């Protein structure tokens, strides 16, 4: 029925046959509560996953999902606690997907429609049946835990009704894929309760209070029930209700989404990922998305966003025709573009013999074209290239303004100052090509650096390579997912926000032996303009960290003057000394 994780032998019936108020309820509740209070985990025996359903889930549905092409799986929106998580440098043989709203079937059908355009009814039925069966078990165990803490029936029901439920499917590769015995590092779940079922091969381990590890056997009909961080807060809240002082409150009320965003940004190597598709300013989820974007930008100067600004057809035209067509132009023609420290054409050089990049379009805040390279490299015109780059710039301009508005709003800047800031900027499209390893001769294509910009939005095509640095110096590899943009703060945003948003350090590696294309949409101050901290971000609690500076003068200082000798040229140029 139920057993502490270090005592799998029990003579009581399976917990699925224990009913509230029935013969075994109090005894089962006592066993569950004792193990959860002692270890935060308990093993339960149940028949919610019979042999047929187990075979359908582990023998067909899961192998079928994980056999899908990586690009298809990455089409699912991911984030700190949901969607698809693909292999990463720290876990090269681990992948996982979370499917929300599984108990009403809608979430499963939505995922099925994304993965299999013509449907996969067997997959949907299997996951939905598993979720429905496990929901009954989860409610029963949850009620036992709450009751054991002295919570009344009405509040137990209210708690259970407040929850959402999901199914996470996980695959762990063999040792030869992983390269090490540890496939997932020790961690706590950001959940209320997790019900974990293993198939055939053991691997799950629970930590005891003495820090020893207890291996959970993959026995049929046995489920490992694990307390998450949210249950810890709930249990502290419930047991603190008595009027005496024996159980003082240990946790304050918290917003779950806000906690997720905070936890994900302070975890080393983790960057928030926010879905902005269909988002309207002032709409029902605007404040939540703004909080997530701002938190990530304040923490690490970067955030990942999902958006439809680069749809399937536009992506194909951009990366499969426009970019290859541009870089196939003879070198002397490309070199005829006006170059400089931050604009024009950058060709191969000794430290990067297989890298080239060009700023191919510059637009104003209203979308008007300031400068286009197409007129220079194709004197007789190239309408297809012009239209593709123009369509991309138009879509990205809206997204860029949305993001800058979110960040400044999130920091407390008033609308009139946000509008003034946006009017002071120009925007540009930069195409980049990274040759294969054979051309390059090394894996590092672009050394770690900060952008001399306000904000950069980067999209990769097919081949990974972009890495963002976290506060602890670790590197976060950004997957080349369709519809996903890496949003990177530049040095000038640090000035505008008075140091609240750090310029992110990033680099490019290309471990694959394939040519790589990327596109960057960035905002910069207009030449001759002065950049200064926004008034709301300088007050008695926040002294001025940066003085006003001329953008073009800083560019010359950083790339042509004494700034080349400094580890932090921005502070050297316009940093404000404490009084």
TrEMBL record:
UniProt record similarity statement: Belongs to the iron/ascorbate-dependent oxidoreductase family.
InterPro entries given in the database record: IPNS-like_FE2OG_OXY, IPNS-like_sf, Iron_ascorbate_oxido_reductase, Oxoglu/Fe-dep_dioxygenase_dom
Listed Pfam families: 2OG-FeII_Oxy
UniProt key word Oxidoreductase: yes
Keyword set, alphabetical order: Dioxygenase, Metal-binding, Oxidoreductase
UniProt protein name: 2-oxoglutarate-dependent dioxygenase DAO
Function statement: 2-oxoglutarate-dependent dioxygenase essential for auxin catabolism and maintenance of auxin homeostasis in reproductive organs. Catalyzes the irreversible oxidation of indole-3-acetic acid (IAA) to the biologically inactive 2-oxoindole-3-acetic acid (OxIAA).
Domain Fe2OG dioxygenase: 425-525
Origin superkingdom: Eukaryota
Keyword Signal belongs to the record: no
Gene Ontology MF terms in the entry: dioxygenase activity; metal ion binding
UniProt cross-references to PANTHER family, sorted A to Z: 2-OXOGLUTARATE (2OG) AND FE(II)-DEPENDENT OXYGENASE SUPERFAMILY PROTEIN-RELATED (PTHR47990)
């Amino acid at each position: 029925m139920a057993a502490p994780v270090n005592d799998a032998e029990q003579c009581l019936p399976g917990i699925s046959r224990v009913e509230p108020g029935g013969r075994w309820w109090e005894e089962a509740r006592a066993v569950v509560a004792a193990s959860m209070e002692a270890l935060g985990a308990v093993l339960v025996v149940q028949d919610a996953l019979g042999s047929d359903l187990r075979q359908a889930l582990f023998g067909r549905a899961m192998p079928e999902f994980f056999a899908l092409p990586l690009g298809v799986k990455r089409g699912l929106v991911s984030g700190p606690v949901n969607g698809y998580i693909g292999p990463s440098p720290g876990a090269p043989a681990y992948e996982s997907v979370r499917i929300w709203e599984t108990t009403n079937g809608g979430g499963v059908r939505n995922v099925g429609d994304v993965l299999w355009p013509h449907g996969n009814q067997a997959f949907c039925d299997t996951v939905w049946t598993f979720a429905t069966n496990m929901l009954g078990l989860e409610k029963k165990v949850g009620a036992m835990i709450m009751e054991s803490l002295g919570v009344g029936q009405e509040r137990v029901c209210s708690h259970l009704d407040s929850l959402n439920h999901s199914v996470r499917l996980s695959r762990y590769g063999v040792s030869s894929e992983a390269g090490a015995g540890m496939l997932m590092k020790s961690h706590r779940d950001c959940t209320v309760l997790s019900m974990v079922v293993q198939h055939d091969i053991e691997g799950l381990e629970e930590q005891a209070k003495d820090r020893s590890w207890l291996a959970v056997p993959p026995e049929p009909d046995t489920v490992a029930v694990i307390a998450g961080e949210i249950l810890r807060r709930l249990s502290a809240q419930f047991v603190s209700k008595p009027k005496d002082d024996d159980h003082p409150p240990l946790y304050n009320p918290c917003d779950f989404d806000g906690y997720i965003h905070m936890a994900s940004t302070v975890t080393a190597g983790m960057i928030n990922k926010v879905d902005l598709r269909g988002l309207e300013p002032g709409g029902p989820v605007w404040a939540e998305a703004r909080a997530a974007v701002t938190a990530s930008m304040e923490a690490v100067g970067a955030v990942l966003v999902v958006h439809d600004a680069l749809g399937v057809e536009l992506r194909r035209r951009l990366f499969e025709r426009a970019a290859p067509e541009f870089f196939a132009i003879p070198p002397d023609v490309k070199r005829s573009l006006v170059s400089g420290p931050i604009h024009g054409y950058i060709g191969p050089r000794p430290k990067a013999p297989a890298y080239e990049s060009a700023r191919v379009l510059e637009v104003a805040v209203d979308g008007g074209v300031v400068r286009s390279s197409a007129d220079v490299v194709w004197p007789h015109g190239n309408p297809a290239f012009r239209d593709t780059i123009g369509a991309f710039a138009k879509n990205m301009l809206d997204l860029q303004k949305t993001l800058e508005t979110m960040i400044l709003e999130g920091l407390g800047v008033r609308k009139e100052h946000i509008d003034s800031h946006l009017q002071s900027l120009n925007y540009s499209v930069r195409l980049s090509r990274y040759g294969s390893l054979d051309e390059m001769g090394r894996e590092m294509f672009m050394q770690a650096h900060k952008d001399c910009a306000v904000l950069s939005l980067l999209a990769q095509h097919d081949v990974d390579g972009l890495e963002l640095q976290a506060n602890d110096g670790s590197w976060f590899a950004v997957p080349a997912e369709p519809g996903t943009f890496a949003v990177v703060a530049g040095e000038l945003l640090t000035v505008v926000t008075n140091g609240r948003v750090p310029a992110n350090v990033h680099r490019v590696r290309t471990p694959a032996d394939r040519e790589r294309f990327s596109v960057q949409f960035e905002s910069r101050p207009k030449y001759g303009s002065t950049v200064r901290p926004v008034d709301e971000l300088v007050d008695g609690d926040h002294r001025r960290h940066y003085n006003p500076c001329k953008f073009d003068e800083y560019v010359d200082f950083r790339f042509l003057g004494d700034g080349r000798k400094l580890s932090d040229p921005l502070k050297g140029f316009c940093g404000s000394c404490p009084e």
